Amino acid sequence: MIAKVIVDISSSEVDRVFDYETIDGVERGSRVSVPFGRQSLEGYVIGLSETTDVPKDKLKKISGVIDDRPIISDEFLGLCDHMTERFHLRKIDVFRLFLPTKLRGGRIKALEKNFLSVSPEYAETDPNLFIKKSAHSQLEVFEYLLDAKEAEQSYLNDNFSAAAVRNLVARGVFSVRRQCVMRTPYSGVVQKTTDVKLTDAQSAAVETIMASDKPTLLFGVTGSGKTEVYLDCIEKTLAVGKTAIMLVPEISLTPQVMRIFRARFGDAVALLHSGLSDGERFDEWRRLLTGEARVAVGARSAIFAPLTDLGLIVIDEEHDTSYVSESNPRYITRDVAFFRARYNGAKTVMGSATPSTESFYRAERGEYSLVRMPERINKRKMPEIEIVNMCDEAMYGNSGMFSAKLVSALDDCLKAGNQAILFLNRRGYSSYVMCRKCGYVAKCEDCDVSLVYHKEENVLKCHYCQRRYAMLDLCPECKSPHIKQGFVGTERVVEHVNKMFPSARIIRMDNDTTRSKDAHLRLLSDFASGNADILVGTQMVAKGHDFANVTLVGIIDADMSLHFSAHTAVERTFQLITQVAGRAGRESKPGRVVLQTYSPNHYVYRYAAAYDYEGFYRKEINLLQATKFPPFTEIIRILISCADESVALDATKLAIDGARAVAAELPEQFVYLNAMRSPKKRIQTKYRMQVLMRVLPNSAARARIYEVADSVTEKFPGVTCFTELDPNDLS
User: Fold this and answer.
1) What is the pTM assigned to this prediction?
2) How far apart are CA 213 and CA 205, in angstroms?
3) Domains of the chain
4) Inter-axis angle of helices 357-364 and 613-627, to 10 degrees?
5) Percentages (nearest 5) of helix, strand, coil residues in the chain
6) pLDDT at position 65, please?
């Protein structure tokens, strides 16, 4: 029997199937050790065959089977084929998505611990018969364990004499039981669930979702009770013996979600996301693989949870850009969810107060079922959004980051004993440092981007390669001491608030403050418990959080996302405003939102202030149709990077020539085609070029463009060449 093996090397040169002579225990989906050249590597068996084209004298034999069961299911083998074809990925890169990182190479295993008990033959015997009177330590630990019945050996070693414990084990007085111990994340984050009676709107939503044979778009305003709909659907799914996946857009949401889900489903819930320790991630993955856990909760990567009999997939805040992977391997989570749902005959529900225009468009066309939940629970009012023209503030002599109205609103909020959220989607202290005399801007030596000043550490950081530089005292070009810091970040917001309200307790939540393990949980718990008055943060504070005492949201710079290099910039602005505004007034206290902008007449603010999603959608979808952007086309980007700029240019010329040849052959499928330097033209010492095109959805042109990218990789082996389908960011 011949095994078809994908070898664990991420290289286009070996991205193909290799034939090996099989051994006992090898099955489709097995992880195996194989000889490869002069080394031994891991590989994955994707199929078995009776024949091979490899000559018998050159056919090598599998060295061994690594796991006690196949760990890549038939479903995931099919998913791998789908993802490699749709997103132009290497098979091994897709396989790596399916497994905990440290599982590869045997770097992480199940945690086993010794548990000791008194052997039965000694339990009823006078200890003086087998323990010397002088061996006080042995007698002490013996008496403890006799009373406790069982204890972990490490506990006994720490609290008694380790030598005494070893002696009693060696003599057979203590029996040893080896047991796997689960490293459970957020094990203490559980609260008793209470019976929740669904509203009529929630019940209708559940009924539609469970009855639909199409994906369902759950369009519900913030605070309308979408989470209870998800919980009820999952409960019904588990009741018929199936499993479920619950996706959230931010790691920061997982403690809150885990609290709710564990209260409802107990140990049947497992958590998967990148913030877990290696051991925790492995154990949670293994619980899902073995069927011990039946509900997977987590961020984007949880879509690959190794569940069988999948019955439901929930994508909360489906519009969020975090569901599109922007690093290799690049994929769209929604597409993966649809494949898994089709394979298993499962339901898919996508929830949002601000659905993506693409999703709402497909719902209108009948591709998705559409469920509306237009009111908050108990008919609570949405918070009023007040638009402040910062140009007027400057005219009246206020050049600061806070308008008079926001300062007044903060003062009122704090005096009333309420809490506030201040939102600015930019971390650090200032986003660039510039010389006011000659115009020099401090940039990373390895990346063509401005350095961000972080005052707490007094360093300049590159947010792309993480390189750090000393803060400037003098301009390196003209030696001027007049150094200006431009565009504020969350650090500076905190500084200003501290000056205005010295007694206010402030929590900052961004990528800098949440790097440590469980930092999200700690910060959010502190705020929810009332240990802080103001939460300052980036977009991670805008989504899904439910704080009863928040009555004010301040949006410091609403215009930031308008200038994003993507056709969805206006849409993202509307979504961010609506989502962060929805954090205010979620309980009995009314909410208020102060939105600061230099473009108050932009239509996005008019629609956002009125919470008029459908009005905004109509305008946006008409613009997208007129300009032929998704969902009316697909964007394909070939991104080329190389340390040698001339080689990158040559590779780009080959790519654009190849794309033009495809366009000439299939002109009716092309809407746009051009080659250019990437706006961020150098990252981590590599020059970046790109070929951009828009083609009709699901056209033959996509596969042909992927072939063009392959030809670039073959001719220029020193060039990195990626293709992206509908990327979030074109910079």
Assistant:
1) 0.88
2) 14
3) 2-106 (3.40.1440.60), 112-180 (no CATH), 200-379 (3.40.50.300), 384-427+489-624 (3.40.50.300), 634-725 (3.30.70.590)
4) 90
5) 40, 25, 35
6) 96
